[in-house]
Amino acid sequence: MRRWVLWVPLGLFAIFFAAFATGLIMPKDDIIQSRMVGKPMPEFSLPAAIDQRPALASSDLATGKPQLLNIFASWCLPCIAEAPQLLELERAGVDINAIAIRDRQEDITNFLTRWGNPYRRIGSDETSSVQLELGSSGVPETFVIDGNGVITHQHIGDIRKDDVAMLLEKLKEAE
Amino acid sequence: MKYFCLLLALMLSPPVFAQTGLPPAPLADRQLDDPVKEAAARNLMEELRCLKCQSQSIADSNAPMAGDMRSKVRERIAAGETPEQVRDWLVDRYGAWVTYDPPVSAITWPLWIAPVILLILAIWLARGRFRRKKDNE
């Protein structure tokens, strides 16, 4: 009987222990980055979400000027949290278009009346169809799109105060 | 009676509490008319990961987004795409992460190799044991 075989169970235990320990210690990272970053915007055409703003098609996202595409919904709480930051970006001269996910016209109208409307165009995506095309996995998300309609950056989650400068920087890089 | 009415009113107003007020996407919970295509779509759904509730497949999840994904899968299968084409379409957008049957790659090859290595190791260990028994006799 070779001596070293006796150590195999202990060795296996050490391997499993290390595997589970790293799993416990490592911070949970369940954010799914879109693989569409660096690719042109997929083609789509969505109906207008509210009467006060025009509809949104992919052709509106290649205007020669970098812009933001915000994915939001009136039923989404973090979307309220990011509303002031979107208004700030709009005041800074950024073009922001939006896609409302699984939403109703009256709810969107109420939401925008209450929290402000920084959007030029709002498309209504009732079955998350364009959201899936974009590789987006939740609301809110914000895409930076360059003048040719190529996605250059994806911001997942609400835009915090510190993110405003970063997004302005990304928009500048996209020029 | 007043309380009963209130209770009834609460019971009859689920959309107030729902995450989104909209009904599910058309094919989220409706089977395809063609049973072969429905079976193919169903099998694929069980291998696709829900983006919202990440430990579930989209077939198991009640999240509105999982419903939208199911609808998309059925729509594409009904339009004549193969399950592999639909899977690739999602992998192109979300990465191999979205499928429970990930392709062999630089990171995933141990998943396929590990069982083979363990089997070889087990056979080798078992062989040693059997042989020793014989020697003792």
TrEMBL record, chain A:
It comes from the Bacteria. Residues 35-173 form the Thioredoxin domain. Pfam families: Redoxin. Keywords: Cytochrome c-type biogenesis, Disulfide bond, Redox-active center. Belongs to the thioredoxin family. DsbE subfamily. One of its GO terms (molecular function) is disulfide oxidoreductase activity. Signal peptide: none annotated. It is found in: Cell envelope. GO terms for cellular component: outer membrane-bounded periplasmic space. One of its GO terms (biological process) is cytochrome complex assembly. It comes from Parasphingorhabdus marina DSM 22363. Gene3D superfamilies: Glutaredoxin. Coiled coil: none annotated. This is Cytochrome c biogenesis protein CcmG, thiol:disulfide interchange protein DsbE.
UniProtKB/TrEMBL annotation, chain B:
It holds the Pfam family CcmH. GO terms for biological process: cytochrome complex assembly. The keyword Iron applies. GO terms for cellular component: plasma membrane. Its main location: membrane. It is found in: Membrane. It comes from the Bacteria. Residues 1-18 form the signal peptide. GO terms for molecular function: metal ion binding. It is a single-pass membrane protein. CDD domains: CcmH_N. Keywords: Cytochrome c-type biogenesis, Heme, Iron, Membrane, Metal-binding, Signal, Transmembrane, Transmembrane helix. Residues 25-135 form the CcmH/CycL/Ccl2/NrfF N-terminal domain. The chain crosses the membrane at residues 107-126. Belongs to the CcmH/CycL/Ccl2/NrfF family. Required for the biogenesis of c-type cytochromes. Possible subunit of a heme lyase. This is Cytochrome c-type biogenesis protein. It comes from Parasphingorhabdus marina DSM 22363. The lineage of its organism: Bacteria, Pseudomonadati, Pseudomonadota, Alphaproteobacteria, Sphingomonadales.
